[in-house]
Amino acid sequence: MFKIGAFAKLSGMTIKTLRHYDELGLLKPAHVEKDSGYRYYTADQLLTIRRIEGFKEQGLTLEMMRPLLTGAVSPSEAVSTLLKKREELESQIRMAQQQLEEVDERLVRVVRHAATAEDGKISLRSVEPVLVASIRENTPKGKLCLLLDELKRYVRSHGEDPEREMTIVWHRKADCDEEPSDIEVAMPISKEIPDSRSVSIYQMPGVKAAVIYTHRCDPYKNNCKAAEVLRSWAANEGYRPLETVPVREVYLTSDKDIYGQLRMAETIMPIERIRKKASGST
Fold first, then answer.
1. Cα Rg for the chain, rounded, in angstroms?
2. Residues 156, 261 within the same domain
3. Residue 273 near residue 239 (C-beta atoms within 8 A)
């Protein structure tokens, strides 16, 4: 017989593992000295070790192994155990395949945004009208994420994609986060869906002329300087903001596609020409 240390070396197991197998009833020592508590194993118990290793290769848990190691198992019982494990593995494979598809979709979107959305770019263009689901409230900016989450859950419940571009319209922006702002959150939808007490479905108007700043920012922080950048640009280029039309922030990156703290966004400021650009200016 072999002391536990020698048997551990012979079998390739650790002493801790052999003690754990003993506690679970998978592999009891052949003999335990009453006075010292020393565990002893026999050479033929190596077969049990190899069987455990084989069951592990099949992905069986220690609990599933116990009856296979210690009981009189019929072929039908063995088949039942293996079929159960097979179903479990098939489920894991399906889940892994779904995760792989999700990763592939994220890769496509991240690469596309990196290629098309130039950080720090200012451009002039019109904005087309779009059918949206919208929530508008007077609430502190700190609750913005709650409005967005409510809107996402609502559009999802009506079969719409909750990961599309989000738009935040600042009808009136408070000076600090704690004071209520007149905030509207909106998401484009593919078709008319029912509205509710809090969610409105309507055609968000387009903008004939807007200056747009593409940048990375955190929509829940109060330190984004995009509006200041656009006002400065407009003043230098002979434009002024249309005070009657609110500024919009469109978040091009969905929640699931954010890697880091910032997401790609467009700040859209409606403008009108007040003078021609001075010659020689840049």
1. 32
2. yes
3. yes
What is d(CA 102, CA 110) in angstroms, rounded to the nearest whole number?
Answer: 12
The answer to whether 276 and 238 are in contact (CB under 8 A) is: yes
Counting residues of the chain whose pLDDT is more than 90, the rounded percentage is 49
Maximum CA extent, the chain:
102
Q: What is the pLDDT of residue 282?
A: 45
Residues 11 and 148 in one domain: no
- 281: in domain: no
Q: What CATH number is attached to the domain comprising 21?
A: 1.10.1660.10
| Token pair recorded at residue 117 | 């959305």
- Predicted confidence (pLDDT) per residue in 164-217, tens digit: 889 999 898 877 767 888 999 999 999 999 999 999 999 999 999 999 998 887
Q: Which residues contact 98 (CB under 8 A, 6 or more apart)?
A: none
Query: Are residues 22 and 36 located together in one domain of the fold?
Result: yes
- Burial code (b: 16+ CB inside 10 Å, e: under 16) for 12-31 equals ebeeeebbebbeeebbbbee
Q: How many Cβ atoms are within 10 Å of 164's Cβ, its own excluded?
A: 15
Written as one string, the DSSP assignment of 221-263 is: SS---HHHHHHHHHHHHTEEE-TTS-EEEEE-S-GGG--SS-E
pLDDT at 102: 85
What's the pLDDT tens digit per position in 118-164?
667 898 999 999 999 999 999 888 788 899 999 999 999 999 998 88
Q: What is the pTM of this model?
A: 0.61
Per the structure, the complete domain to which residue 89 belongs is given by 78-116
Given this model, what pLDDT does residue 106 score? 76
Same-domain check for residues 39 and 89: no
Question: Which pair of structure tokens corresponds to residue 277?
Answer: 């650009």
φ, ψ of residue 72 to 5 degrees: the values are -85, 95
> Which of these, 237, 236, 231, 230, lies nearest to 215 by C-alpha position?
230
